[in-house]
Design goal:
By secondary structure, the protein is α+β, with helices and mostly antiparallel strands. It is built from two helices and six strands. The strands form two sheets. The protein has a four-stranded mixed β-sheet with strand order 1-6-5-3. A two-stranded antiparallel ribbon has the order 2-4.
């Protein structure tokens, strides 16, 4: 049988409380950083991406997550591939498309990707 003294229990609880406070501070810092990134991404406006198209306006290939990341990075912001959400798959047509970006729990934004065709 393990019998703990009151001071041992208080010491353990004290450590747990300190660790919880530290964890909450880290989470708040990450949340604030995600909010700042959201505002910076929203300030970009539309992102232009050029792609080869055929005579009917259909793309040769598609614009995927890596292409969207690269286009955002050319505008001075960084986004991880895992943060980009494209539930309908890659973009395959010329025009404007909304792409969701998930930055943190309950912090999402969208960026408009304007695909410009070149023959």
């Amino acid at each position: 049988m393990c019998i703990r003294t009151l001071s041992e229990i208080a010491n353990t609880v004290g450590v747990a409380i300190v660790m919880t406070v530290i964890a909450l501070a880290i989470m708040e810092h990450a949340r604030a950083a995600a909010e700042n990134r959201k505002q910076a991404i929203e300030a970009l406006g539309a992102i232009d991406v050029t792609a080869k198209v055929g005579s009917e306006g259909k793309l040769f290939g598609s614009i995927g997550v890596a292409d969207v990341c690269a286009a955002i990075e050319t505008q001075g912001q960084t986004v991880e591939k895992s943060e980009i959400r494209m539930p309908e798959g890659a973009l395959r047509s010329v025009g404007e498309h909304l792409v969701d970006i998930h930055l943190y729990t309950d912090i999402d934004t969208q960026v408009t990707v304007n695909i410009i065709g070149e023959e």
